[in-house]
Amino acid sequence: MTSFSIRHAEKFPEPGFSELNRAVFVDMQQPSMEWASTLAAETAAAAPAEQQVHSPMHRLGAYVQDELVGWTCGWMERGNVFYVANSGVLASHRRQGIYTALMSAIREHAKSMGAVAVRSRHSVMNNPVIIAKLRAGFHISGLSHSAQMGTLVEMTLHFFPEREALFRERALPYVVPVA
């Protein structure tokens, strides 16, 4: 097993991070010129205040020596929920505990910031991550659609038993007793 470390990062170095991101998500993203053009137009049209819609980005990187081989990043949302925007591990470094360590590190980081839960969204085709999150105590909490990624499954990890109980109560269908 490869030795790795998890570290906070102000920013991941470019163009290396963009290349790593493309390598990790090569099977899931469906880039197109139309999508890139739409994003560019929206970004250009947005006012500066609208571009910063969340708290500052928090980044954790997984490094083998000084090589970035995996990452997770996100921000705090309203309601003290930490949103994991994206994570990934290079294919050549998977199945070595790196993703699990990143999940653990971001969970502890979110708790230290006062989060009550961690939320993330993943392609419904990304079974390894969905399974890893379920094993780590996350629950499927919704579905959505992304023009870039297709159908996404939302997953949530509640930090407190009371929140977990409320989630379970509201997630299960209400059955009307027969008189």
UniProtKB/TrEMBL annotation:
Keywords: Acyltransferase, Transferase
EC numbers for this chain: 2.3.1.-
Source organism superkingdom: Bacteria
Domain N-acetyltransferase: 4-173
One Pfam assignment: Acetyltransf_1
Keyword Acyltransferase: yes
Family annotation (SUPFAM superfamilies): Acyl-CoA N-acyltransferases (Nat)
Entry keyword Acyltransferase: yes
Gene Ontology terms, MF aspect: acyltransferase activity
Annotated CDD domains: NAT_SF
Cited PROSITE patterns: GNAT
Protein's name in the database: GNAT family N-acetyltransferase
Organism from which the protein derives: Ideonella margarita
Highest classification ranks of the organism: Bacteria, Pseudomonadati, Pseudomonadota, Betaproteobacteria, Burkholderiales
